[in-house]
Amino acid sequence: MLRCLAAIALTPVMLTAQVPAITMATAPADGSAEAEVVAVATAALTAITAGDWTRLTDLMVPESQIHVSVQRDGTWAHRMRTREAERGNTGARPLIERGWDPIVRVAGGMAIAWVPYDIYVDGKWSHCGVDLFTMMRIGSEWKLVGLAYTVEQPPACRPHPNGAPPGTTGTPGAP
């Protein structure tokens, strides 16, 4: 998901207008901590889709880590990358990652956003899963202290409820 990113054929401005990073059935109240947390998660997904590693890692504290859990042939595997390794990412494959209906929990200066997502690479269905953004309030800002995500196929996860993004191909769950 995060390591195979680059700018896609659409400009980030056009992409943002056509494919929102996170869609929600009910938005949190403006100015609430929940809304601020969703804004950081949205900014992260927007940066990922744009292939902008600097912008993504600017949302993180220096000690942040990114963890991925991937299931292949019935076996789960784990990989981890540091913020600095991610910052140096030079992935060159066009990507669209979309999240929806985040579950947000805030306790004082700590928060999580659990965001189902799907992803298209090179304009084709790739996979779906859950992004888990863990944040801490540092001064007046929410910063990512960790990002974990799963890489799965339906029925273990579901594709975006709005269907495939414009201009993409592939059937969710098909190889």
Fraction of residues in H or I helices: 10-25%
Strand content: 35-45%
User: Shape, please?
Assistant: globular
The CATH C-level class name: Alpha Beta
Radius of gyration: 15 Å
Describe the structure in brief.
By secondary structure, the chain is of the alpha+beta class. The chain has helices at 12-18, 33-50, 53-58, 83-87; strands spanning 22-23, 60-72, 75-82, 95-100, 103-107, 110-121, 124-138, 141-151. It is built from 4 helices and 8 strands; from the N terminus they run αβααββαβββββ.
Descriptors:
Nuclear Transport Factor 2, Chain: A; alpha+beta; single chain
Describe what you observe in this structure.
- The chain has one domain (12-151): Roll (Nuclear Transport Factor 2, Chain: A).
- It has helices at residues 12-18, 33-50, 53-58, 83-87, and strands at 22-23, 60-72, 75-82, 95-100, 103-107, 110-121, 124-138, 141-151.
- It contains four helices and eight strands; from the N terminus they run H-E-H-H-E-E-H-E-E-E-E-E.
- Helix content is 21%, strand content 41%.
- The protein is α+β, with helices and mostly antiparallel strands and 175 residues long.
